[in-house]
Amino acid sequence: MSETANTANTASTANEAAAEPAEVQAPGRDASGEPGSWGARLRDAAVERWRPIALAALLLAACYAPFQLVPFRVFQLTMVLVYAVALLGLNLLVGHAGQISLGHGAFFAVGAYAAALMLDRWDVPYLLTLPVAAAVAFVLGLGLGVPAVRLHGLYLALVTLSIAVFLVPLLKRFESVTGGSMGLTLTKPAPPAWTGLAEDQWLYFLALAVAVAAFLLARNLLRSRVGRALHAVRDNEAAAEVMGVRLPFYKTLAFAWSAMFAGAAGCVYTWVIGFVSPDSFPVTLSITLLAGIVVGGLGSLSGPLLGGLFVMFVPSWSQDINKAAPGVIFGLLIIAVMYVAPTGLAGLAGRAAGRIRRTLRRE
């Protein structure tokens, strides 16, 4: 009896001793005594709380910018937003679904011409051309996605590139519809009198509204079951299929969604430029868009915006540096950015933010 009582007392004392550190655990330490556990969680939660505030501040700055810049700079920022919407679709296909496309500029052109024809032939209201152009591009992307399901890698890249190659001569051939090499000249959307805005400012805010809506749509899409399925397809197709992901369906859907964003961007491009022609959408446009999303950052929501800045400003800077060979300067700049930031500008910004968080955790 005495041995049993001693054993029970010993076990009780051991349990109390084991429980004591959990009760007197110091703030900022985990069960093993390592510092920074609680503090890290608190700081990460603070980062998440501050993220909406940072996005709101960025949106306010974007709304304030056109009132402080000259019309040409406002036009450049408008084009950045247009390219960002197009790159958002390309990022969905390449960065999140793992499929490659060298024909994204073709869907951009489809959206532009769909809007231009509606405005020129049937005098459709401007805002109504946006969903129609996006729907037309979506249907064409769906049609491309069906045969593209059986292709991978270089074969898929070659097929998509061929679309961008034959688009320009195809548009020139149907001169009675597309205007041929002369293109179509359109009237830009006029700002309502009650806004008090200039034309360039009104176009900027139209592009900003479309860009915000597109980014929200992409964000919600990627957080849904569709986004998780696309990531599974990108990471490992065989494993995704074993888990029940329908590869043909989601690959086709990725092409369709990507084309839809490009078509919407092409529509806004028509509003901003007021002119479309086959030569406005060469093969190099598709290649430049692909370079833009790689430089901006694949698989990141901020990548398309950074890529839009790259696509808009770097070619013009290359022209200013060397008017004889701007393409050489443009290529060298791409190589330099990829060397410094192999995961894109968004990845570089993410690493910088990570270093700041680690520094705060040490304090």
UniProtKB/TrEMBL annotation:
Region of interest (Disordered), residue spans: 1-37
Cellular component GO terms, alphabetical: plasma membrane
Chief location: membrane
Keyword terms, alphabetized: Cell membrane, Membrane, Transmembrane, Transmembrane helix
Subcellular location(s) per record: Cell membrane
Biased segments, Low complexity type: 1-23
UniProt protein name: Amino acid/amide ABC transporter membrane protein 2, HAAT family
Organism: Thermomonospora echinospora
Classification lineage: Bacteria, Bacillati, Actinomycetota, Actinomycetes, Streptosporangiales
